[in-house]
Design a protein that fits this description.
Oligomer: single chain
Radius of gyration: 19 Å
Largest sheet: 4 strands, antiparallel
Shape: globular
Structural class: alpha+beta
Number of strands: 12
Order of helices and strands: HHEEEEEEHEEHHHEEHHEEH
Number of helices: 9
Distance between the termini: 55 Å
Strand content: 15-25%
């Protein structure tokens, strides 16, 4: 890694929350022990058998975590974007995760080995403190995602998902909240357990009713009235 490229990587790593409090020299030491790779859209970033060997930092781009059911259906467990990290839990308990990670757009990702990760935990209390906060947030998000399965009504499931995604990917605008994600109806179906046809029917109904608006770039505008209406009121 030449000096100019290393400096660029250091600046990208600095934007990852768990490393934001580190000094230049501490960041430089960490970066020198990383491997940086670029992945094309739809490229496999992480296979199941490697999930307990490495931790991944997204320097640019986006990925999705997917799992296949026994029937061969794809289930989306999570989306990660620039600044996010994943794979740390399996490094701690050494268990593999029955999922793969796929780039949803061209992405640059830094890879950290288990030995480097464990040395970070032992020597950098600042990293541990931020990581614990992030992991607690992910646990709460998992509890909220489980709530989706408790609804029997398909519209409730889809709306609950949009509410959850708006917390991390929403941008407040005058008309409401823009969900800055290029979600297909199949993506929504894979995250809620609802058929794609049903998702299309629900989105079309809300769009025609003015509760949401499907933008040209496939982003969704969620009106304030739509967001204010409780999920159980559907």
């Amino acid at each position: 890694m030449d000096q100019t490229y290393k400096e660029q990587v250091v600046e990208a790593v600095r934007r990852v929350p768990i490393f934001s409090a580190l000094t230049d020299s501490e960041l430089g030491e960490i970066v020198s022990r990383m491997t940086v790779k670029r992945f094309k859209r739809n490229g496999i970033v992480l296979y199941e058998e490697d999930t307990n060997e490495y931790m991944y930092l997204i320097l640019s781009g986006k990925v999705k975590v997917i799992q296949s059911t026994e029937g061969g259906r794809e289930v989306i467990l999570a989306f990660h974007r620039s600044g996010d990290f994943f794979g740390e839990m399996s490094l701690i308990d050494r268990k593999t995760t029955e999922a793969i990670v796929v780039a949803t757009e061209d992405s640059t990702i830094a890879i950290i080995s288990r030995d480097t990760f464990l040395s970070l935990l032992q020597g950098q209390g600042k990293v541990v403190a931020v990581m614990l906060q992030i992991l607690c947030g992910r646990l709460r998000e998992s509890w909220e995602r489980i709530q989706i399965l408790s609804f029997s009504n398909a519209s409730q499931k889809v709306k609950m998902l949009l509410h959850l995604l708006s917390d991390d990917h929403g941008q407040k605008v005058k008309e409401g909240t823009i969900l800055k994600m290029k979600l297909t109806h199949q993506d929504i179906a894979n995250m809620t357990g609802v058929s794609r046809e049903t998702v299309t029917r629900i989105i079309d109904k809300w769009n025609k009713g003015g509760e949401i608006r499907v933008c040209k770039d496939r982003a969704l505008l969620l009106r304030d009235e739509f967001m204010a209406k409780g999920v159980k009121d559907l």
